Amino acid sequence: MKCDIAVLPGDGIGPEVVAEAARVLKAVGRKYDHKFALHYGYVGGASIDRYGEALTKDTLKLCKKCHAVLLGAVGGPKWDDPLGKVRPEDGLLALRKELKLFANLRPVKVLPMLADHTTLKPEVVRGVDLLVVRELTGGLYFGKPKRRWQTSRGRRAVDSMSYSEMEIERILRVGFELARRRKKKLTSVDKANVLETSRLWRQIATELAPEYPDIQLEHQLVDSCSMRLIQRPTEFDVIVTENTFGDILTDEASMLAGSMGMLPSASLAGIPKEGNSIFGLYEPIHGSSPKRAGLNMANPIATILSSAMMLRYSLGLIKEAEVVEKAVNKVLDGGYRTYDIMSDDMTKVGTREMGDLIAGKV
Fold first, then answer.
1. Which of 66, 296, 315, 341 has CB atoms 3.0–4.6 Å from 350's, for a disulfide?
2. Which of 42, 247, 336, 340 is an active site residue?
3. Active site residue 116
4. H-only helix segments in 99-221
5. Of residues 11, 163, 191, 212, which has the active-site annotation?
6. pTM surpassing 0.85?
């Protein structure tokens, strides 16, 4: 099989962790006789420094020509001027919009060998295996009007949360379809006691439920969901929610696994069903961590697991995806750890060493 993959290393530790994911993909290619053609481009701060914009037309064109996109992280203090006309995150938002990546999937699985590593009690997190489905191209981040202005009484700003029936229905269907592959339970998260968009969200979720009689649907307010994620996280299977709520809940849920460096994500342009392949963008959920860039410290596992999600959802290579995931588990079972998941009696390794170990287990 020949696949074209757009690789956008990004900023900070992005190039380092992406390099290790690329090594693992090459190991998979050698083992199963696949050719993964990696085509590199710039995005975020790296693109601003080089071209003066966070995402160029050429980079966008490259992404559209490929089967999938592998992304590092973007951003950093260098580009954090609140009055700046262009920001690294503009490139990420533009990618989501232009590539029609409306469904963000963030799995949170607590591996047995890391259950004692989190800041929560092991008995709370042991057995956690959930998936958050976040709507990615609507809501506050994209709604209009969005502006800031000066008045006689001081500065003001406005952001708008807006959702159409189509936007809500398609992301809910992603949640329902993925719940069918798992434990057949879907938690729809909203703020229906306050927000009009959430009341529409809950109504549409209720209307769709009869089409999925095998799925247990429950509704949860976002504030009580955030509390329940810490109290009883094993009760969740698939969580589906809108853009802003999903952004916050997934960062909270990442702490169940002990480190953001362990958690991958996929952003898809379609509804995943059995047997189909969907264009997607794959990235770790962590940021660019510029203070650790170039120090061979960053945990590449989230990016490597993101590449496994790419194999599964965009390339249809299920067996190969499982091999990568098992390779990660074997290395962790062997006692190897990066700094962020380090504990007593384990062997501390750097970014390159961790990537080398995982590639060797493929």
1. 296
2. 247
3. no
4. 122-125, 165-180, 196-208
5. 191
6. yes
Q: What is the pLDDT along the chain (362 residues), one digit of tens a residue?
A: 899 999 999 999 999 999 999 999 999 999 999 999 999 999 999 999 999 999 999 999 999 999 999 999 999 999 988 778 899 999 998 999 899 999 999 999 999 999 888 889 999 999 999 999 999 999 998 899 999 999 999 999 999 999 999 999 999 999 999 999 999 999 999 999 999 999 999 999 999 999 999 999 999 999 999 999 999 999 999 999 999 999 999 989 988 988 889 999 999 999 998 778 999 999 999 999 999 999 999 999 999 999 999 999 999 999 999 999 999 999 999 999 999 999 889 999 999 999 999 999 99
- Residue 115 corresponds to which tokens in the numbers above? 């259950």
Instruction: Verify whether residue 212 is a known catalytic residue.
Output: no
191: annotated active-site residue: yes
Domains of the chain: 1-117+260-362 (3.40.718.10), 122-257 (3.40.718.10)
Round to whole Å and give the CA distance between 16 and 256. Answer: 25
80 assigned to active site: no
Q: What angle do CA 290, 243, 221 make, to 5 degrees?
A: 120
